[in-house]
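Backbone-to-sequence.
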């Protein structure tokens, strides 16, 4: 690789995303980013939120580019990126005194992954937010990756009191769900709601994704929210973003923590 990878989309979306992260990561310390891509988001967010340790991760081929951005930025809060394919059995632990991550961020990844990988993503997030190792059952997608059924018996149901489809207002400052430093997940990207595309552009994008890889595609918000509930996360915000994207935010409250196996 001769120069740093560059994503124009990252330059456009980084400040709207940052506004959401500033609010929901305000009481977090250790963030795991999944699918860091170019690494641009990581240096922008880590510079703007110096109270966070921002741990990048991605599949092997992305790591050299991420390293270039991190090394050039010379920030104190961006450790070297780690290799992570969400379908891998073992996810990284935070190299910190806390021993685990209290926040996970990912952008533009769930529509790239196949559905089995999306399920593995949520299984892994459930484990890192608890500071536990992945269960042995969680293996590479296509060869025994956990299904939502497997997740259901591993993890408690949560989300009582939140109507699916009820959005945005749940993220208002002062909500009873906020202010509890026990695990936050923020996912940025395009989503369908009620089975419908949010724009013609997203419909075309979905067609392009599926032509490239039939396992890919824009995800239904409701299906993703159901996976989050299975790992004990409650949705606290669904923020409209530019270009028909969303920032989905879930939080695990102390009362939702699964008891140790
Ligand atoms: C469209 S890029 C987005 C990159 C960056 N987050 C951004 O917003 O520009 C999709 C990213 O998803 C990552 N990805 C796809 N499948 C993955 C998997 N199974 N495990 C981890 N990352 C994955 C890719 O490696 C890539 O970095």
């Amino acid at each position: 690789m001769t120069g740093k990878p560059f994503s124009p989309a990252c330059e456009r979306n980084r400040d709207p995303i940052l506004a959401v992260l500033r609010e929901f990561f305000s009481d977090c310390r250790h963030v795991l980013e999944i699918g860091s891509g170019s690494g641009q988001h990581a240096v922008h967010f880590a510079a703007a939120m110096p109270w966070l340790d921002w741990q990048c991760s991605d599949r092997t081929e992305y790591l050299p580019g991420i390293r270039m951005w991190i090394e050039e930025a010379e920030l104190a809060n961006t450790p070297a990126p780690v290799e992570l394919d969400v379908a891998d059995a073992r996810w990284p632990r935070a190299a910190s005194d806390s021993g685990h991550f209290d926040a996970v961020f990912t952008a533009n990844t769930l529509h790239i992954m196949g559905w089995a990988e999306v399920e593995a993503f949520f299984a892994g997030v459930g484990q890192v937010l608890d500071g536990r190792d992945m269960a042995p059952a969680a293996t590479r997608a296509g060869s025994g990756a956990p299904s939502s059924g497997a997740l259901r018996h591993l993890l408690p149901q949560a989300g009582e009191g939140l109507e699916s489809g009820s959005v945005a207002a749940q993220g208002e400052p002062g909500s009873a769900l906020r202010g509890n430093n026990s695990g936050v997940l923020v996912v940025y990207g395009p989503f369908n709601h009620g089975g419908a595309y949010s724009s013609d552009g997203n419909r075309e994008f979905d067609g392009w994704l599926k032509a490239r890889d039939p396992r890919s595609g824009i995800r239904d918000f409701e299906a993703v929210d159901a996976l989050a509930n299975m790992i004990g996360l409650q949705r606290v915000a669904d923020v409209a973003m530019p270009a028909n994207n969303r920032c989905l935010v879930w939080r695990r409250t102390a009362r939702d923590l699964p008891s140790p196996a």
